[in-house]
Every structure is written in structure tokens, then in C-alpha cells.
Amino acid sequence: MSKFALVIPPNHPHRHHHHRHHLFLLFLLISAINAAPSSATTTTNNDQKFKEAPQFYNAPTCPSINGTTNEMCSHEAVHVAMTLDAAYLRGSMAAIFSILQHSSCPQNILFHFVSTSTADHRHLLLTITHSFPSLKFQIYPYDSSVVSGLISTSIRSALDSPLNYARNYLADLLPHCIHDIVYLDSDLVLVDDIAKLAATPLDENTVLAAPEYCNANFTSYFTPTFWSNPTLSLTFAGRKPCYFNTGVMVIDLQKWREGDYTIKIIEWMELQKRIRIYELGSLPPFLLVFAGTIAPVDHRWNQHGLGGDNYRGLCRNLHPGRVSLLHWSGKGKPWVRLDANRPCPLDALWAPYDLLQTPFALES
């Protein structure tokens, strides 16, 4: 991918000779175009360069997390888990930036990034370190082959990525010293302090918390085959199941491990391979295991669906109420629409967190 930067200082003679300046610009642009690859398909996501984010500092009242032998195990810290891959890296960088900017104790946030074992981990590490030099984080390799054989095709191919299922294995991938974690998707930004979300109380019988949407048509998440089979549909007997979006969750990993919830999710995925009981990707197994038993979180912590539906990705408005987290779940992603010059109105709320370094810096 060819790069071209032209910045003309205020006292440059071309400032005062517009015709020569425009011809000079035209010549350089034509040269850049001729030097560029003939097909856009030759461009890779590794060509993306990101700016360094501003540094944010702790407030004086923040507890110290430096006293523990292993800082990544600190119970005083806010632990955040996210996945990393080349396709969504731009979204992940914006999400990290937004979390740090709105945190009262940004240096007390520890990030746990999960990436496939075949990803370019060195590139991911260098990219994050360049944009966030003080960030405390670790990258955990995830062997996607453990789940690839369990994935059944869904209504949108992007939902079938093995990395979408990494959240099933967080309790195994992350150090066992970590108890509570906030899991976040890569297509969101926070506009509030993540410590408030992390402080969601979980009682002794509750494994996870998330915003619930009990007015959604819950039956639509499973096939008629599922509902017509009493053995299957009785799964929800005795509980009031509500839809929740798995892109924003507070999880007690210790209780998850004790309850073998990874195995419970896998068992539903194995059944799905034999009898098609749902159409979406990684969401339905979570609903089957947890719906009706989670701790509810205020809806402001997941203003989801801003990417539109899974087919067309049409523009959506915010749900009524306060906003702490904006989530572009669905087909349309804000960076794709902004690049195509076809943004939705709410994509303007994501743009300030975009750290992508544009290849052309033209100043006239």
C-alpha cells in the first residue's frame, strides 16, 4: 500500500502560487496512484497504522495495583477481556481508547486480549504498544481448531468466525487468579467509567451479568424443531428467559470454572451440529445456558444494534434512555461506512475514537 504525505508550511512559496500548487498536487497524486497496487484486494489489514493515543492518568483516590507479586492478578484492578484480529483491529483500538478516556482510574485497567494462535501476535503487540505505551495487557493465543468443528453456518458469515467463540473459553485461557472480568466486543465505545460496569454485583448463584431485553421475541432465536421437541423446549422450564447480547458481559470466571459452563455450552453446540436448533452463531448457546439466570444490568451499558440487522445493516437510532456504551452490533460497522462515505448519523459518535492514521495528509 503506497503512502503519500504532503504538508506545505504557511511560508512556503506554493502558498502564494495557487496554479503551480494545484499542478504540483495533481502530479504527486497521479504518481501515487500509478505507484499503488493495481487491485485493492492486495491491501492487507497489516498495512493499517494507528496514531498514539493521549495519555490518561489516575485520579489521586485510585487504589494501587502495584503491590501484588503478579500485577495481572490484582483484585484491585478492573479486568477487561477482548478478542483481537486483523479484520476488527481498528474497532478494538477505538474501544480501548474510549475505555481509557472515560475511566477515573485508567492505569488500573488490565486488558486481556485473546487472538487466534495463527495471528501475527508480534504485529498486534507492536500496534497496541505504539498507540498505548503505558497499557497493561497480555495477549493469549487461542487454538481455534478446538471450536471450528463445532461451528454451524449461520445467517451471516462473519458470525461463523472461530474467534466469536473465544468468550466460551475465557475461564480456561486466562490465569485462574482472575475472578471477575468484563468481556467486550470490538465494535463498541464507552462514554462512561467502566469501573461502574465492573462493579455489578453477582450473588453466590450468579455467573454473569448483562443488560436483558425481555420485550424481545425470545422464540425467534430458536428453530421450530427446538420448540416442537418437549425435551429441548423444557430447557427453559422454571425460568423467565430474556434475550441478552453477549458483546457486553460481566463474568465471574471462578464460578464459571466451578460450574463447568464451557462444557455446557459445547454440549449445545454439538447438538446443533446434529439437529439444527438455532440460526445465529455464538449467541444461542449462551441463551440456552444462562437466559433467565443472569444479573440484569442497566440498558445504558449496551446501546446495541447500531450496526443494523444481520442482513442489510440499515441505520438505527438509539434506544430511549441514558447512554454509557454504544455498540455497533449487526452487519454495519462504523469504520466501514465512514470509509465508504456512507455513514449512519450515529457513526459520528464513533469517529472521535478512531486512531487510524490516514495515508494521505494533505494541507492546502
TrEMBL record:
CC per GO annotation: Golgi apparatus; membrane
Keyword Transferase: yes
Entry GO MF terms: glycosyltransferase activity
Enzyme Commission number, as recorded: 2.4.1.-
Signal sequence range: 1-35
Pfam families cross-referenced by the UniProt entry: Glyco_transf_8
Pathway: Glycan metabolism; pectin biosynthesis
Class of enzymatic activity (EC top level): transferase
Location of this chain's protein in the cell: Membrane
Membrane topology listed for this record: Single-pass type II membrane protein
Keywords from the named record: Glycosyltransferase, Signal, Signal-anchor, Transferase, Transmembrane
Family listed: Belongs to the glycosyltransferase 8 family.
Protein name: Hexosyltransferase
Biological classification of the source: Eukaryota, Viridiplantae, Streptophyta, Embryophyta, Tracheophyta
Annotated gene: LOC107909363
